[in-house]
Design goal:
- The protein is 29% helix and 26% strand.
- The chain is of the alpha+beta class.
- The protein has one domain (20-140): Heat Shock Protein 90.
- The longest helix has 21 residues, at 49-69.
Length: 150
């Protein structure tokens, strides 16, 4: 059997290229797939186990919000790994909502999802219109994580 080995170009870092995008059915059983992908993306970016756990929790919260509130058949998650940085964008085509309404304090009626996400990532960019919602989460690796290539 003749096999070829994939090689990277000189100066090119492994795992840092175009974003990875997946479209998931808007059902809870697919959230695990979103978590598995973000775990791998976190590893490619050089994140430690605790940071990867935080990414998985943030993706779970974002996907669950879409499933509960967007009333769409499917949604998209885009992942991008860069050295020590992960960007995750969750996109739906639901009817949107007033972002200002989410600045209230969480109560028995909800409001915890975005609060949890904000505590897990370094930056949250939220845009919502009548055409849909785009939630971008950015997490930078802590300086205490050791690079295994050093």
């Amino acid at each position: 059997m003749n096999r070829k080995t994939a090689r990277t170009k000189e100066g090119e870092e492994m795992g840092f290229s175009d974003p990875i995008s997946i479209r998931l059915p808007s059902r809870p059983e697919y959230v695990l797939l979103a978590r598995l992908v973000v775990a791998q993306v976190g590893q490619l970016a050089g994140f430690g186990p605790e940071e990867i756990y935080d990414l998985k929790l943030a993706v779970t919260e974002a996907a669950t919000n879409v499933i509960r509130h967007a009333a769409v058949d499917s949604f998209e998650i885009e992942y991008q790994a860069r050295p020590k940085v992960v960007e995750i964008t969750v996109i739906d085509t639901g009817g949107g909502f007033e972002v200002d309404d989410l600045t209230r304090t969480p109560d028995g009626q909800g409001g915890f999802g975005l609060t949890v996400i904000r505590g897990l990532v370094d930056e949250v960019i939220l845009n919502s219109t009548s055409e849909g919602t785009r939630l971008k989460m950015i997490r930078r690796a802590s300086s205490s994580v050791k690079n295994t290539d050093e």
